[in-house]
Each structure stands twice: as C-alpha cells, then as structure tokens.
Specification:
Length: about 120
C-alpha cells in the first residue's frame, strides 16, 4: 500500500494524471455567422450622368430634291430651305455648349470609375 501511494505521489508530482480526472474539454467555438452584407469599403461608387440630361441634337433640315436638279429650285423653295438652314444653325449653336457640358460629365464619370476601380484593388491588397 505504501508502495502504491509513493508511486501515485511520484506520478502526480511529475504531472501525470494517474488518479486525477481527465481535464474537461473546452466547448467548440461557435462557427462564425455569415455576414448579411459585405463590409462597406471606403471606396465610393461613381454615378453616371442621368440619361435624360443628354441633349438632343437638332434635326438637319431636309434638302429639297430640286437643289440637285439641273434647273434649280423655284425662289420660294430656295428661300424656305435657306430659312430652315439659318434656324438649324441657331439651334446647333445652342446645342454645342450643352453637348460639351454633357461630355465633361461623361469624362468625369470615366475618371471617377477608374479611381473607384483602383480603390477597390487597393482594398484587396
């Protein structure tokens, strides 16, 4: 009996769990819950210009068939066409700055899209 107590005492002193109960297992860690939405990044998505803000180019006046004819157009038809061309020229002058402004918005959108793509690439690194 003394011998078994000494043996048990030596094993316990050496760290052996001869008579001790096995250590309790830690409960498994809960699985990470899936996120409902991706984590918001610092990158802001660019917004394209509104399609309805695109200016409409004025229609070119229709050329009368008599302009290409050998005899030409009668006076009233030539004057009507000339007036239509003058009106078109005024309309196109008003259209040009609107078109240039829209092109600037498109170019800004293209630049912002490139910046956004670079930002997203940086978040992956």
């Amino acid at each position: 009996m003394l011998r078994s107590l000494l043996l048990t005492g030596c094993l316990l002193a050496a760290g052996g769990p001869v008579l001790a109960a096995p250590p309790a297992k830690a409960p498994p860690a809960p699985a990470a819950a899936p996120t409902a939405a991706p984590v918001a990044s610092a990158c802001t998505r660019p917004e394209p210009p509104a399609p309805d803000s695109k200016p409409v180019r004025p229609a070119v006046p229709e050329k009368p068939a008599c302009l290409d004819a050998k005899g030409g157009c009668p006076g009233w038809e030539a004057y009507s066409f000339n007036d239509a061309v003058k009106a078109y020229n005024l309309q196109i002058q008003a259209f040009r700055p609107l078109a240039e402004a829209y092109v600037q918005k498109l170019n800004a959108y293209v630049k912002a899209a490139g910046d956004y793509a670079q930002c997203e690439v940086k978040t992956l690194q």
